[in-house]
Design goal:
The structure holds 2 protein chains of 2 kinds. By secondary structure, chain A is of the alpha/beta class. Chain A is built from 12 helices and 11 strands. The two termini of chain A are 30 Å apart. The N and C termini of chain B lie far apart (55 Å). The chains are: A alpha/beta, B mainly alpha.
Amino acid sequence: MNAETTATAPEPAAGDDVLLRVENLVKYFPVQSAALFRRDREFVHAVDGVNLEVRRGQTLGLVGETGCGKSTLARCILRLYNLTSGRITFDGRDITKLKPRQMRPYRREMQMIFQDPYGSLNPRRRVGSIIGDPFAIHKTATGQERKRKVQEVMELVGLNPEHFNRFPAEFSGGQRQRIGVARALAFRPKLIVCDEPVSALDVSIQAQIINLLADLQKELGLTYLFIAHDLSVVRHVSNRVAVMYLGQVTELAPVDELWAHPRHPYTDALLSAVPIPDPDKAGQRERIILAGDVPSPISPPSGCRFHPRCPKAAPTCVERDPVLEPRLGDEADHLAACHFPVEDGEDISKSRPTISAEDRVIESGLLGSA
Amino acid sequence: MALNIPQASEEAHAGSAPKAGADLAVVAKKIEGRSPWRLATQRLLHDKASMISLSVIVFIILVAIFAPVVAAIVGHGPNQQFYAPIGLNANGQPLGPSSHFLLGTDTLGRDILVRIAYGTRVSLIVGVLASVISVATGAIVGLAAGYFGGITDTLLARLMDWLLAIPFLLLAISLVTVIGPGLVVLLIVIGFLGWASVGRIIRGQVLSIREKEYVEAARSLGAGPWRIMFIDILPNVIAPIIVYTSLLIPVSIVAEASLSFLNVGIPPPTADWGAMIADSQSVFEYGAWWYLVFPSLALLITTLAFNIFGDGVRDAFDPRGGQLFV
């Protein structure tokens, strides 16, 4: 897949009709402690105040490192978890506090494609039964009718409908992911959350699945929230991209804008990490290497969470939490949460942080790159 | 729906490639899944020890079903007493095996062969039904405890631990003494006291399966907890359930025989192996070895056959190398 190709996602839908709106979503998980009663319980700040909008018919890409909260966010949106606080509005209706029974009709309209093609299918059930599950659960079709619909959707995703009776173990990884897609499509939902749908697949198969998803979006008018950590994939499929770090969105912009004018140093570092196939060009560019690892989400850093690793960190960054808003005169749809955003043409590998040593991550020789 | 989607090029033929000359149309018509059941059955059929014990079990079942036929052939009823000098000797003691009574008579002059045949019915009915009750209860409780977690799990798990700590015989004797003897009471007592060990195993399995992604997928589709338990989780724990059932049958049979031996089982005059063994003690010192030996042999052979078959079933679901009996 050529990283230079522009996004193939469809044109923005008429008006920016918002299908899914997430406001200040917070999800904390309590840490299990050995003591019977703890005075101050600790929490894992999995998602700490996320605001997102997904417009109808479009794809919002969501990138971030492992552990930044993308999957938790996806599951919160689908109400597989209860929120600690915040609001989710789906198709104009507030679904934050719905009980499981009230949530059931919405489950027909929002579905998920899981990351692991081997784990997300029950090995003891036949594929026809797995794909037919939505019909059985919501009691919309039985017997021959259900079989017909299942075979219809199997054909839609490129599977042989006669493999209805096979077990998942008899399929390859790419085919299993297609089964997962088929299961998600059974009710022709409005929103599909793709939680790293291609991460576990071979690169050549990734291309097939991504093209499948793109074709389905065109044909059925689907809306995607596409979560991934592979930037090239996200660039190919998204209209807009949100970058997450340690439970918060650090930058949100249309895809080409993000690649051309990254504002947040984290985004800049991520983009510099994308491999370039040409070894000569790769040797010429400056890699921005971030020092250290992602801090623990149990006690996130104060102020801007990125400050311990940021090449441009200043005392302001330690004290004040930056707001996600347009910076440096950008358009209203390009938001960044940074006190000292990256200017066009600035090379932050040359920057040095000006914060005190204990606020910074120091690893010998790895602060920025020479 | 004419989309130009590239067909999945990697085909999983998985052993379904037709042989040369086979009718391709027939093969293509119905593509069967190669289910784990079929594999397990294949393994079981190739296990000689299991097949021998299975034939013994089938024989025992036939004896149980056709016990009246046995009685008719021999000409003696199961409760028909033969007095001296036909069934008992001059002193009123049992007669040994002869052409008239193939396995001898008991203290009341009844035909031991026929009574053993009728005793098979009791043992099998109690053995199989009590196991099924145990496993069904244990599976449901294990599923609920494992899946719901929280306070439900705590309560049910403690209940199972409590039941496992109680000595079976003491509780069984107490219950039967209080409620009164009978077949149904026996079934409930043996079945109810055996479910705890099954429940613990199932609960452990469910705790790990609950975290799998396909369970999460089912929840995201809107499935309720009971549907998930029975349709998604249960098929993955069915293997230990089946193994447990087949291993629990001989345990139940012996439990029933023990209770009857202690005179808290099936009330007389119903023919029952345990009762016969108990009864034989009184005349054993007078040399009536047949009354002790033959019912004991029947119990031994039945239990052994079910045990070996149960081992075979377990190996069929979970094959390991280096089996003792090929």
